Amino acid sequence: MRITDIRTYLVNANTGEWTDRPRGRNWLFVSVHTDAGLVGYGEGGGWPEVVERGIQEVKPLLIGQDPFEIERIWLLIYQALHGHGITGAVRGGVQSAIDIALWDLKGKALGVPVYELLGGKLHETIQLYTHANSGEEAARLREKGYTAFKCVPSVAVLKEIRKALGSDVQIGLHCHGEFSVHAAIRLATAAEPYCPDFLEEPTAPESIEALVAVAQKVQVPLAAGERLFNKWSILELLQSGAVALVQPETTRLGGITELKKVSALAEAFGVRTAPHDGSVGPIVELANAHVMATTSSFLYLEHKDDDVSWRYKVI
Questions:
Q1: What's the confidence (pLDDT) of residue 142?
Q2: Domains (range + CATH), the chain
Q3: Catalytic positions, please?
Q4: pTM for this predicted structure
């Protein structure tokens, strides 16, 4: 079996909410076609419009390749892009889209789910956490079955949700890397009485030293990783000892292949894994679920409960 074509699909997924992307929120899907008639589907992130162009650039390298040789194709794309200085989210997005599609294709060809290809299930169910920014919203979501939440970095909001739901739910605060070391320490200290389960990316992701400085002064567990783009940067984060939770974003990281490796690294350091899934589409969400079903370091998976109504109809 050989790859005969690779196609991309840029889909606008705006929900009417605020977005920090100049062109709005888009999902990028990819299909990998073969001479056997089988098609695999993947998804790439980062900057979808730029990643789409990157996929078109590497497409000639992939035509005629054996789609079962996933690791070799991963390295082929990495070397092609990295050698020309294309790193970070763009490189990760291109690799992720192709990689996820190849795993999907292989599972279809062999007649087994992807989690079987990755070693089989450790978990029968996948716990999700979702976003809530008021006690009322959290209570509504709790009725739908959620027991874990993430809110804006506000002690008042954390207090309100904790008061509404009590101590039997998990609540994290996401900071988007926007705090100084001093401000992050103040936030974590003020939040401690309300038992936050994690403080996500409190300082700029480029500075592990800043994260370490916060970790040394607070009791709240720290989380990070969504804006790190390969296993080497995740390894440096783990080696720092600053985090209790690593949050790789699969569409920026390099796909299923890299997520599985990062999850194993986290296990070796005694750190839990919770893939970041804030704005990506349904294909990568399901890819994350397959990997996490096989991963002992898995804690929970992020899910956007109030997304566009047609989210799963595109699959």
A1: 98
A2: 3-111 (3.30.390.10), 128-314 (3.20.20.120)
A3: 176, 276
A4: 0.94
